[in-house]
Inverse folding.
């Protein structure tokens, strides 16, 4: 009678061993497969990047241009590229692009630059303007720039306009659609779903919560948005017109004018771009190849002109491992990029604790004499923003000047963390201000009741059992609104104290209103218009140091992570470029998904936010 249980045990044991052995075999095959792929890629002589004399640098940017990348596991990146999987949201560091252009300008092996921007994603006018300045310096070195494209988006064309010549595919298109701010509104949907929104805000122009209160944009929001959008569009037109040598009136801003011009060329968008002065020539792919060969010269025995692409060239400039800086006096740069959330966050997102820790590292580093806080953020958690700002104050108390340098965005919480700096620099096209505050939460008691689900119970106080499944009492709502009101008073007091203004003066330009960097300077919200480099020089001047270095304070990687990043980062330079493209419907669905997800990842402990949701333009 004991034989059957023993037999059953033996069968289970054998089955478990078989599964375990199979698991180990599969994991080992995968591991050694990756090792083989890696060594083949890095030991193959064909993969060695050699920049030959008389080469053209092909600036083929793939992905969104960012100040700081979101943290991605380097092993995941390597595996995806090795298997040919496209990166879903590729990103390119602005600093890498500038480094490549600046190095190529003084590199005797590089004789020209080819802009190939078809796969360049979103960037914003501030970032492409910074790149354009680097392109100007490249041309000043006596080298030529040619822009080649099958199509050009608005940001892509801005960069292309700084080329000596622009070539467009005859079947391509180029229509500049200006800047707009359009967003989704959910009031009717929320009502149909019986969801109860609870909105608390201060600021006539604080429109971040309007999508949950209305089905359209308020007149106040339209007024505010139109002003700063016009500032950006005027800058865009002035720069492009100056580069192309025509008047700003050449921009077609209504359908009647555009249709008239298109009728004249039989609806041919390529010919329209040529006739209107947007491009210099229409060329097919083969014609581009032949023209570049003729222009740049082909060595005997070669079929094409000599070239090196952006990623390959960048790999020749990047050090595998960081080295100790030689300067005893340094200006430290701390990047605050992304939405501001509470706690510790990965790179590419601002964490109240993690970003404050970087500022504290700069304060405790004896070699650091001044700090530049590079802000590229629309804001977020009010609590986390204050945690970061307190570290700015502590830096100043330690005798280390702080200069805020604003990138594409420095609005709401982005302005809060900048306000206490000794000096604030912005680009003319920076989106800033939005000095306002709001609270937002949803309760689902009515929606759940339709499903036959209810919440009930008892508590010792009116506040016990606070939950999104229960309605908010009038008393609790009043308390939250009082807290939001206090937050707004704190905000305008903070700005007034640091900008040498009265609270009344701040209030008149606050109320959640968004401004361009140029207008913000006129209003006294920023001190100077300038670049990150200008801010670094200003920080050194405030610290009264002349011989200094610049260091980046960022999250330290473990030795293993550092090895993986450098090893697989170098290997990826030899793998094919990823491609990405979203259809208009996919973009709309991604936008809807992102806006709804924001309700879950915003994590202020009091649900109070200083966030500029209207700063997103398209």
């Amino acid at each position: 009678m004991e034989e059957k249980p023993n037999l059953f045990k033996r069968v289970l044991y054998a089955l478990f061993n078989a599964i375990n052995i199979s698991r180990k075999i599969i994991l080992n095959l995968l591991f050694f497969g990756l090792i083989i792929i890696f060594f083949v890629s890095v030991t193959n002589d064909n993969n060695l990047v050699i920049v030959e004399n008389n080469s053209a640098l092909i600036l083929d940017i793939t992905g969104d241009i960012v100040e700081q990348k979101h943290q991605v596991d380097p092993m995941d990146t390597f595996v995806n590229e090795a298997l040919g999987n496209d990166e879903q949201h590729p990103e390119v560091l602005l600093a890498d692009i500038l480094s490549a252009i600046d190095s190529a300008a003084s590199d005797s092996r590089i004789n020209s630059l080819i802009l190939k921007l078809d796969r360049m994603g979103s960037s914003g006018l501030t970032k492409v303007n910074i790149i354009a300045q680097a392109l100007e310096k490249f041309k000043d070195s006596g080298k030529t720039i040619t822009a080649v494209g099958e199509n050009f988006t608005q940001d892509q064309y801005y960069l292309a306009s700084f080329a000596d010549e622009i070539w467009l595919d005859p079947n391509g298109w180029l229509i500049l659609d200006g800047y707009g701010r359009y967003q989704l509104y959910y009031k009717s949907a929320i009502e149909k779903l019986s969801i109860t929104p609870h909105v608390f805000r201060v600021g006539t122009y604080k429109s971040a919560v309007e999508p949950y209160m209305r089905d359209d944009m308020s007149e106040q929001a339209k007024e505010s948005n139109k002003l700063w959008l016009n500032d950006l569009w005027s800058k865009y037109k002035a720069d492009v017109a100056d580069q192309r040598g025509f008047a700003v009136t050449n921009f077609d801003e209504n359908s009647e004018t555009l249709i008239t011009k298109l009728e004249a060329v039989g609806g041919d968008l390529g010919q329209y771009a040529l006739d209107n002065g947007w491009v210099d020539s229409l060329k097919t792919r083969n014609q581009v190849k032949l023209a570049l060969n003729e222009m740049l010269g082909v060595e005997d025995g070669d079929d094409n002109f000599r070239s090196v692409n952006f990623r390959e060239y960048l790999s020749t400039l990047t050090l595998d491992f960081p080295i100790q800086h030689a300067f005893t006096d340094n200006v430290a740069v701390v990047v605050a990029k992304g939405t501001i959330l509470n706690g510790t966050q990965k790179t590419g997102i601002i964490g109240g604790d993690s970003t404050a820790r970087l500022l504290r590292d700069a304060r405790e580093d004896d070699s650091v004499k001044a700090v530049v806080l590079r802000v590229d953020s629309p804001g977020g958690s009010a609590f986390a923003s204050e945690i970061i700002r307190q570290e700015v104050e502590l830096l100043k108390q330690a005798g280390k000047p702080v200069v805020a340098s604003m990138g594409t965005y420095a609005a709401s919480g982005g302005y809060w963390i900048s306000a206490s700096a000794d000096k604030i620099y912005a680009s003319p096209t920076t989106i800033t201000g939005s000095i306002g505050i709001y609270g937002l939460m949803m309760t689902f008691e009515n929606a759940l009741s339709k499903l036959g689900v209810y919440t009930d119970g008892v508590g010792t106080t009116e506040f016990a059992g606070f939950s999104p499944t229960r309605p908010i009492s009038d008393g609790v709502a009043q308390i939250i609104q009082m807290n939001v009101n206090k937050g707004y008073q704190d905000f305008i007091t903070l700005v007034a104290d640091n900008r040498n203004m009265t609270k009344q003066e701040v209030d008149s330009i606050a109320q959640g209103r968004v401004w361009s960097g140029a207008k913000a300077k006129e209003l006294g919200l920023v001190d100077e218009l300038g670049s990150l480099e200008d801010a670094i020089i200003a920080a050194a001047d405030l610290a009264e140091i002349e011989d200094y270095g610049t260091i980046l304070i960022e999250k330290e990687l473990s030795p293993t992570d550092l090895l993986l990043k450098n090893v697989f980062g170098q290997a990826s330079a030899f793998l094919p470029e990823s491609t990405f493209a979203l259809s208009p419907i996919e973009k709309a669905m991604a936008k809807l998904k992102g806006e709804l997800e924001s309700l879950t990842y915003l994590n202020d402990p009091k649900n109070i936010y200083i966030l500029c949701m209207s700063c997103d333009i398209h």
Q: What stands out?
A: The chain has two domains: 49-176+252-317, 330-562+602-615.
